[in-house]
Amino acid sequence: MIDPTSARVPSSRPPQATSHASTRYARGAAAASAHTPASAVVPPIRRPLAAVFRLLIALAALTGLVLDIAITPDLGRLFSYFTVQTNIAVAVFFAWSAYRAWSARPPISARISGGVLLFIAITGLVYHFVLTNDSSSFSMTGTPEHDTVRTVSTHLLHTVTPIGAALDWLLLTAPRSFRWRYAAQWLAYPFLYLPFALVRGALLAPGTEGRYPYPFLDVDLHGYAGIALNTLIFGSAFYALALILIAIDQVRPQPRRPENRISPSGIGPLK
Question: How far, rounded to the nearest angstrom, does the alpha carbon of residue 71 sit from its chain's CA centroid?
Fold first, then answer.
């Protein structure tokens, strides 16, 4: 006869619970495999070259800002310029990004990096194709300033930092990180800059030098209807530029990086 007390009683726990329990009480290599996060399997990689390049971009922006501050008596007017504000963002962003690359930390969010890239690209493109273009109706070349310090500052803030930011994006960042919805989100700052510039100008007395920072925002010249039209034109161009950056990001190749000499799994001989 079969002893009824020795019969196997079916377990009431579902298979998943049993699996979790067995993993919970695993020992040795099995336990290590079960509880090790993916981020710990692949060791973080320090990127000293990227860190140095980004630090140089931050220093270029900071140098241009310091030079401008040193030769500009009206700091309120200085900090009202889109160029100055975007280069402050560049200096902060690239200094922080350099630290993260040096210390093997994850990169800053693509939403933020793409926004900074767009803002400084707007700065460079508007300066070179609109403000210093003699054929442009918004040209500001009528009263050139032959000052060495200002010339150096101008090139740093309008040429060096935009090119540096573009090279960093193309050569040192992973592709396909921008999302199409970012294009509209990035335009929040340029459109918030508009009421800032207009309110500031309205609060200053007529005839004040630098009352409006840019000719296409000058209410005295164009009226509010003209400013609305300029906003539509420039806003559309900025949105198109954002879409172009995202499209390029979707198709550009993966930058080559130095290979890690240690096996990613940490097991086996050196490669």
Answer: 29
pLDDT tens figures, 150-160: 999 999 999 99
Q: Is residue 51 part of a domain?
A: yes
Residue 4 lies in a domain: no
Residue 237's closest CA among 190, 200, 205, 204? 190
Rg (CA), the chain: 28
- What DSSP string runs through 158-185? IIIHHHHHHHHHHHHS-SS---TTHHHH
Identify the domain containing residue 203 by its residue range: 45-251
pLDDT for residue 142: 58
Q: Give residue 116's identity as a one-letter amino acid code.
A: V
Q: Is residue 234 part of a domain?
A: yes
Residue 61 · residue 91 · CB < 8 Å: yes
102-138 confidence digits (pLDDT tens): 999 999 999 999 999 999 999 999 999 999 999 999 9
**What is the reported pTM?**
0.79
Q: How many domains does the chain have?
A: 1
